Every structure is written in C-alpha cells, then in structure tokens.
Amino acid sequence: MEFNLNFAWIEAVMLAGVRIVAFLVIAPPFSFQAIPARIKAMLAVGLALAVSPRVTADYVSQDTPGFIGALILELLVGATLGFLVYLVFAAVQSAGGLIDMFSGFQMAQGFDPQSMVNGAQFTRLFQMTALALMFASGAYQLVLGGLFRSYTAIPLGSGINMAAPAQAFVTGTTQMFLAAVQIAGPLLVVLFLADAGLGLLTRVAPALNAFALGFPLKILITLSLASTVFVALPRIVSSLTGQALDALMGVR
C-alpha cells in the first residue's frame, strides 16, 4: 500500500494555520487567557483545514528557505490583523478605565492574568462584558469571516504592505480614544458636575471636608448610573465588530 502526500497542500495548510494562530493569540475574544493554549491550537488546525480549499488552489510548493520566509510573513500578517481587531475592541476597556479614574475606583486597581488587563473594577467588568457579548451575539463569527477573507486579499506568502496597516493603526488609535469617551461620556459628565458641586460646596462651607464626602458620593453616583452604560454595550459591541471588519478588509 502506498500513500502519496501532496506536499503543496500540506505547506499551504501549515501557512494558513500560522496566520490563524498569530491572529487567535492577539485578537479578542480568542486571546482570553482562560481559553487553554491546546484549545486554541486545535481551533487553529480546524480553521486551517476549513479554509484549505481557498488557500491551496493557487499555491505553488516552495523550497526550504522560501517556505521559512513565507512562515515569517504569515506570522507577521496574522499578528497585524489580530492587533487591528484588538485595537478596535480596546475602546470598551478604555471606557471602563475612564470611569474608574473619574469615580475613584482607580485606587483599587489590580492585574487580571486571564484577560491580561491592568485596571480597576469597571475596566475588567467592561472587558468581560464585551467578551461575553461577542460570544453570545455571534460577533466572533464575523471576526473569523474577516480573517478568512484576508486570504483573498493577502495570498499566502505574499507578505503585506505595511503602509496600509500603519495608517490603520493611527486611525484605529484615534477612533479608540474617541469611542471610549463616547461610551463613558454621560457618566463622566455627571461625575464632573459632582466634582464641581463639591468644589462650590467647599467654597460656601470651608469647614466641610469635601474629600471625605466626595469619595462615597462619587461611588454612589457611579454604581447608580453605570446601568445606563451597560444598556448601550450590546449596540456598542455590534458597532465595534463592524469597525473591526472594516479594519481587516482595509489591509492589503
């Protein structure tokens, strides 16, 4: 009995798998550290086999140096695409950080090794909520669809023009800060008015300890009005998913 191995098919699937692995390690929600590395590797192999009909059709087998160079290029492409998705969804985490900073929760910050987030309560809460909404709403499927379509825009081993990702990084960073302010904006305005009111109260009654009164008051306002931000999170995650797809499609 003889087995004939199609080395060109194997090489193409391996290159596709390298791009997928680099993407899954960085891009949310797959980058969550609670997902075991073995599961991520199995998922990458399964996705590489699923996309094999698209990537193996026009692939030509290469020699060893060319194949190693193609592996490095695919690793770079997958990491670049994953970081673009991460940059878009970092707006939710940044919004939580702004709320923590203005409300006083920032003093109780800590490092979460699972999500690799260093922040206080609302930073981690918003991050976990966004990840849960991505899985519950099926947004992760759209992100994977954008990754699969990248094989058409960026064939295996062809590399990537870094001019487009660099521009996308700059635009994505600007949009991230803008989206963070828009998400946390209503609550930040209320907290700012509370600070202004406490300042005026201190001018009227200098004997009053505004600091002792300000911390519990701002915590009470934050906990009372945080639900208004959570109500908008599903629509925000949906909008961010569309922006992530646009960022993936904009890279050539």
Tell me the layout of helices and strands.
Blueprint: H1 7-26, H2 37-50, H3 52-55, H4 64-103, E1 110-112, E2 117-119, H5 121-137, H6 139-153, H7 163-204, H8 210-249
Antiparallel strand pairs: 1-2
Helix pairs in contact: 1-2, 1-4, 4-5, 4-7, 4-8, 5-8, 6-8, 7-8
Structure description:
The protein is mainly α and 252 residues long. It has helices at 7-26, 37-50, 52-55, 64-103, 121-137, 139-153, 163-204, 210-249, and strands spanning 110-112, 117-119. The longest helix has 42 residues, at 163-204. A hairpin with a 4-residue loop joins strand 1 and strand 2. The model has no long low-confidence stretch (mean pLDDT 77). The radius of gyration is 23 Å and the shape is elongated.
Outline:
elongated
Strand order of the largest sheet: 1-2
Q: List low-confidence stretches.
A: none
Report the C-alpha radius of gyration, rounded: 23 Å
End-to-end C-alpha gap: 45 Å
Integer average pLDDT: 77
Order of helices and strands: HHHHEEHHHH
SSE-based structural type: mainly alpha
- Please work out how many helical segments DSSP would assign: 8
What brief labels describe this structure?
elongated, 252 residues, two-stranded antiparallel sheet, single chain, mainly alpha, 8 helices
Quick summary:
The protein is built from 8 helices and 2 strands, in the order ααααββαααα.
